[in-house]
Design a protein that fits this description.
Blueprint (H helix, E strand, L loop, with lengths): L3 E6 L6 H12 L2 E4 H15 L6 H10 L2 E4 L6 E4 L2 E2 L7 H10 L3 H12 L6 E6 L2 H5 L5 E6 L2 H14 L6 H17 L12 E4 L5 H15 L1
Parallel strand pairs: 1-6, 1-7, 2-6, 7-8
Antiparallel strand pairs: 3-4, 4-5
Helix pairs in contact: 1-9, 2-3, 2-4, 3-5, 7-8
Length: 222
């Protein structure tokens, strides 16, 4: 049977990871958060003392590092060169570093190559910002999620609070606005909806209802 590849794209806070984990759980597929790969590259650069402005050096890190995802969708761990860096890549420093390195074309090229190899035995659910356009342009199903900036800011703020970090909605909104501009204006694989992707606005959609809706679409494609 042909592998099932589901590509989920969209801006920060649109619900990609929640949907991705839910689909992977229900369909028994590997779940890959592509953003975590950029976080790992950024973290490795910081840890190694490499300047985030040194494009060639950061790109070499992206090409050389070995990244493996282990565990089920709800307990996913990332191994970077054999080391579990799951908590390390979720720090504010790693988040800032990932945003910086993700704008380097050579880094994106290296990461795309890595992501294409992460399909699991039965298939993969992968979320990010260029999965349906650059990583898997022939994916079984492409979904593009969007939501209002205000809704996304509240969602991300709630995530930060869950992690024990107190931030204001205003600060999160400002960061989301900056991230949106970087994602849409970068020269290498900017955030755009694939022509054949299904567009869903999640601003007022319950996560459970969204999951069931996309599962029905998956069933219609198999």
């Amino acid at each position: 049977m042909q592998k099932l590849i589901i590509a989920i794209d969209g801006p920060a806070g649109s619900g990609k990871s929640t949907l991705g984990r839910g689909l992977a759980r229900r369909l028994d597929l590997l779940y890959v958060d592509s953003g975590a790969v950029y976080r790992a590259v950024g973290w490795r650069a910081l840890y190694s003392g490499v300047s985030l402005d040194d494009g060639p050096a950061v790109a070499q890190i992206a090409r050389d590092c070995k990244i493996v995802f282990e565990g089920d969708p709800d307990t996913l761990r990332m191994l970077l060169d054999g080391r579990d860096v799951t908590p390390d890549i979720r720090t504010p420093e790693a988040s800032h570093a990932s945003s910086a390195v993700a704008t380097i074309p050579e880094v994106r090229e290296a990461v795309v190559d890595k992501l294409r190899q992460m399909t699991g035995e039965r298939g993969v659910v992968m979320d990010g910002r260029d999965i349906g356009t650059a990583v898997f342009p022939a994916a079984t199903l492409k979904v593009f999620l969007e939501a209002s900036a205000e809704v996304r800011a509240h969602r991300r703020r709630d995530e930060e609070v869950t992690l024990g970090r107190e931030v204001s909605v205003e600060d999160v909104r400002a960061e989301i606005d900056r991230r949106d501009r970087r994602d849409r204006e970068r020269s290498a694989t900017p955030l755009v909806k694939a022509d054949d992707a299904i567009l869903i606005d999640t601003s007022n959609v319950d996560a459970g209802a969204l999951l069931e809706r996309v599962l029905e679409i998956v069933k219609s494609r198999r």
